[in-house]
């Protein structure tokens, strides 16, 4: 381990300088020789490094999602050239080149962080060996050796002997209890981070050997940290536990606000977005509008959760637009349908109300005195030279008289009783005996 750490000795001076600057700040608050001053200096170093690595983390997310998108194609190549490993590798590299994907991009934050990790290890190991390093002079070296974190010296290890630990002003029991607790917390945080990624932010529709490997790493990584953790100084354990907690929180933020398409996290995100949009009739902010815009642009390629979201908006009388906004669905508003086409929402046609049976049989209610009106209308028809077309074919004696007009006022009931229809009747066919 010392050989590996010495390879990164070129960066020990910048790392030691950053630690000393933070120590001067926290030393003025907690005291220069306290574990709080040196421990918080290491934590601040982690935070500073991880903030600088945020662009690489964003690139890691994009690379991981691109790899997940390529999983079906990679599986086809593996099945097609399963007996020819060389051709399989060539086709894989060709696929990476065509899509602009780099499998190593998902490891960029870890690779970029490793020089700082080994440099910090080298600095703390030099403190334990009573050697000055970087900008840490004899005065700072003596102060760092006096610093204890929960009773364990900053440079002590789980595997140190009793004499070495006593020389640092502590007991072997305190050192092993503190280091054991920190190793367990470090392994658990690594396991939870990987499990959170596999259970919530992975496209569940893709089943490939790559996914099985990721599940296996979920259990292998914590074991690796536990094995190597017994050889890390307390200060390095503080560094690694802090970076694990940062990674876990950063990943939780990404899963909550920018989930992988097709994952359970996306289903939960779209459910929250649907509740907000249906309640306020608009998207919450730029992030939500970007998500809606991407869903509308997919058209027929939407997954199950995205189709459910679009259908839910349609049922609520809303329409998702191509620019990511949400408007009320009216007669002149374009609506993005489930199959990706754009239609115009029109109000539904209302069926007329069904009349009661008595009104249908009577032909509708007639005003009182209708018999007199019909009688006078019949007399006017006789004296007039122009007649209606509906009465041209009727015989003269079929026209209503005054008495018939009077009977017509209650004609609804009489026709209902007689069962006869208005107009010429169909002749009855002779019955066969």
Give the overall shape, derived from the CA principal axes.
elongated
Distance between the termini: 118 Å
User: Roughly how many Å is the radius of gyration?
Assistant: 42 Å
Helix content: 55-70%
- Order of strands across the widest beta sheet? 1-2
The major sheet is characterized as:
2 strands, antiparallel
Order of helices and strands: HHHHHHHHEEHHHHHHHEEEEHHHH
Structural class label: mainly alpha
Q: What low-confidence regions span 5 or more consecutive residues with pLDDT below 50?
A: 331-339, 341-347, 365-419
Q: How many helix segments? A: 19
Number of strands: 6
Strand content: under 5%
> What is the averaged pLDDT score?
75
Task: Walk me through what this model shows.
- This protein has helices at 2-7, 12-30, 35-52, 54-69, 71-80, 85-99, 108-128, 138-146, 162-167, 172-200, 209-229, 234-257, 264-280, 286-298, 304-315, 357-362, 370-383, 402-409, 411-418; strands at residues 148-149, 152-153, 318-320, 326-328, 334-336, 342-344.
- The chain has 433 residues and is mainly alpha-helical.
- The chain has a two-stranded antiparallel sheet. A two-stranded antiparallel ribbon has the order 3-4.
- The relative contact order is 0.06.
- Residues 331-339, 341-347 and 365-419 have low confidence and may be disordered.
């Amino acid at each position: 381990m010392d050989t590996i750490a010495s390879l990164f000795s070129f960066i020990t001076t910048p790392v030691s300088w950053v630690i000393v600057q933070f120590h001067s700040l926290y030393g003025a608050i907690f005291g220069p020789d306290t574990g709080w001053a040196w421990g918080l200096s290491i934590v601040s170093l982690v935070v500073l490094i991880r903030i600088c690595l945020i662009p690489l983390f964003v690139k890691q997310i994009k690379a991981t999602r691109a790899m997940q998108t390529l999983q079906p194609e990679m599986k086809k190549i593996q099945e097609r050239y399963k007996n020819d490993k060389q051709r399989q590798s060539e086709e894989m590299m060709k696929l990476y080149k065509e899509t602009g994907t780099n499998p190593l991009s998902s490891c960029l934050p870890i690779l970029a962080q490793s020089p700082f990790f080994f440099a910090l290890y080298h600095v703390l190991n030099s403190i334990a060996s009573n050697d000055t390093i970087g900008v840490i002079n004899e005065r700072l070296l003596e102060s760092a050796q006096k610093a204890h974190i929960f009773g364990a010296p900053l440079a002590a290890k789980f595997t140190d002997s009793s004499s070495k630990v006593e020389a640092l002003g502590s007991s072997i029991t305190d050192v092993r209890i503190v280091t054991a607790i920190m190793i367990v917390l470090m392994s658990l945080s690594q396991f939870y981070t990987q499990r959170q990624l596999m259970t919530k932010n992975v496209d569940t529709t893709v089943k490939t050997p790559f996914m099985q490997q990721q599940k296996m790493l979920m259990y292998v990584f914590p074991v690796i940290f536990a094995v190597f953790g017994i050889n890390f100084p307390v200060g390095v354990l503080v560094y690694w536990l802090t970076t694990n907690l940062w990674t876990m929180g950063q990943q939780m933020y990404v899963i909550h606000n920018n989930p992988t398409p097709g994952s359970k996290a996306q289903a939960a995100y779209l459910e929250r977005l649907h509740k907000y949009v249906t309640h306020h009739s608009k998207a919450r902010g730029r992030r939500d509008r970007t998500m809606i815009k991407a869903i509308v642009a997919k058209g027929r390629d939407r997954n199950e959760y995205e189709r459910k979201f679009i259908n839910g908006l349609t049922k609520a009388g809303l329409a998702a637009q191509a620019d990511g906004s949400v408007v009320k669905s009216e007669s002149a508003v374009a609506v993005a349908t489930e199959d990706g086409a754009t239609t115009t929402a029109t109000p539904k046609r209302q069926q007329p109300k069904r009349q009661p049976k008595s009104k249908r049989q009577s032909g509708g209610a007639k005003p009182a005195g209708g018999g007199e009106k019909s009688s006078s209308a019949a007399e006017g028809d006789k004296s007039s030279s122009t007649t209606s077309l509906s009465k041209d074919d009727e015989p003269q004696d079929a026209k209503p008289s005054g008495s018939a007009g009077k009977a017509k006022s209650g004609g609804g009931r009489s026709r209902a009783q007689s069962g006869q229809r208005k107009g010429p009747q169909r002749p009855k066919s002779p019955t066969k005996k």
